[in-house]
Amino acid sequence: MNLTNHFLVAMPSLQDPHFKRSVVYVCEHNDEGAMGIVINLPIDVSVGSMLEQIKVERDLPLAHPASLEKPVMIGGPVAGDRGFILHNSKEEYSSSLDLTEEIKMTTSTDILPLLGTKDEPSQFLVALGYAGWTAGQLEQELADNSWLTMEADPEVVFETPINERWDKAVAKLGIHSANLSTEIGHS
């Protein structure tokens, strides 16, 4: 099983505050474990405020100030001081990983001065931290019915309002969220 480029959609029974009603975009999944970014748990910091706090200087004038009003996400409980940007740009940055043709992940700071300018990716999500699982840990959580899985959809990542991403991901599975039980069980 390889869940790279899939969503993990938290079941209602998953009450861990880091993952309650979360949607995780899985960036990598292999025999050594998994890594993903939570895409629907915002913190009370905008992208613009974050850039000011870390003193990012721009060479280009602002062209898209509204994009700087986007909230930063809590990407997960691991390495909360590290930034991750999911985006759709075809441009390469010094540390970009092509996850799909439509989604890339960049961890290098060379993308930061471009946010809000004419050269920013047309769609992006900024997260601090990531979600990580050791070998076999995610598979056990799946066996425990903590997560639903589905192929990732860029529309959910970039276009769906943050507070609707969990419901939209559940709906894409053909399920109404009201029909999900908070009870865990095996048949």
From TrEMBL:
Gene Ontology CC: cytosol
Domain of life: Bacteria
Source organism of this protein record: Photobacterium halotolerans
Name of the molecule in the record: UPF0301 protein CAG72_20205
Matches recorded under SUPFAM superfamilies: VC0467-like (SSF143456)
Family affiliation: Belongs to the UPF0301 (AlgH) family.
Signal sequence bounds: none
